[in-house]
Amino acid sequence: MYRIGICDDEEAYRRKISESVRNIALKNDIELKIIQYESGIQVRDCEKPDILILDIEMEHIDGLKVRDLLEQTDNDVLIIFCTSHDEIMSEAYGKNVTGFIKKPVKEDEIEKKLLHAIKLINRRVKWIFLNTISGLTKFKISDIVYGIAQGRYVKIYLLDGSEYFIIDKGVSQVYEMLKDMDFARISRSVIINFENVNTISDEIIMTNGVKLKCSRRMKKQIQEDFFYYMCKVARIERTGR
Q1: 3-class secondary structure for the chain?
Q2: Which backbone phi and psi does 200 adopt, to 5 degrees?
Q3: How far apart are CA 203 and CA 56, in angstroms?
Q4: Buried (b) or exposed (e) across 130-152, using 16+ Cβ within 10 A?
Q5: Counting CB atoms within 10 angstroms of each CB, which of 41, 135, 144, 165 has the fewest?
Q6: What is the pLDDT at residue 35?
Q7: What are phi and psi of 169, to 5 degrees?
Q8: pTM greater than 0.70
């Protein structure tokens, strides 16, 4: 579920944008919660959204000040600005500002900006900490290509060509940690990251060119799982979720 905040000191605009967001959610099969804020002070003091549709011109605390505050305290909130004045937009850029909507707002424009922000949320970097020979090490999930059991250890291979021994877990334990992040176990000793697969046929060819063998017993299931993974990726690209 995505929390969508709408901050505008005019009730009519809050109501209109809320209605549009509900229509967009229904159309794109997106589960979300709408949080309305009457002022920038409420954004500061109340429940934080994942995405904030934020009016720039407000009394007391304007949208630019809300942006600055969120960048200091809640760096994960993505902002879509609303404004009636094009000249203000040059001041409104920021590292978490993902787009601008011109007032009076149009639903198709809200939809375009909202789905883009949702895609950004879905693509946020995920990390995992694993105990290597060098100590507890932080790995970016998408950088892991595959892992192979080697004796009591698991050796993982990364996109940049580096290799690490995981010293406190076997391949089954590493797989349990990663299976919900689009990893698959293709044999008793090998796990792969579907994100870094180029081809699955008689051999599995990874994005770094390495060819891996899938056990005959698991081959059909791996092919089906990869098909469902690719369908999920296509859906996220299409709908943002």
Answers
A1: CEEEEEECCCHHHHHHHHHHHHHHHHHHCCCEEEEEECCHHHHHHCCCCCEEEEECCCCCCCHHHHHHHHHHHCCCCEEEEEECCHHHHHHCCCCCEEEEEECCCCHHHHHHHHHHHHHHHHCCCCEEEEEECCEEEEEEHHHEEEEEEECCEEEEEECCCCEEEECCCCHHHHHHHHHHHCEEECCCCEEEEHHHEEEECCEEEECCCCEEECCCCCHHHHHHHHHHHHHHHHHHHHHCC
A2: -125, 115
A3: 55
A4: bebeeeeeebeebbbbbbbbeee
A5: 135
A6: 97
A7: -145, 145
A8: no
Tens digit of each residue's pLDDT (9 = 90 or more) over 130-186: 999 999 999 999 999 999 999 889 999 999 999 999 999 999 999 999 998 899 999
**Dihedral of the CA atoms 113, 118, 119, 123 (nearest 10)?**
140
The token pair at 157 is 């291979």
The total number of residues shown for the chain amounts to: 241
Q: Which tokens is 220 given?
A: 């059909």
Please give the angle made by the CA atoms of 50, 129 and 146, to the nearest 5 degrees: 100
Tell me the two tokens of residue 124. 């946020």
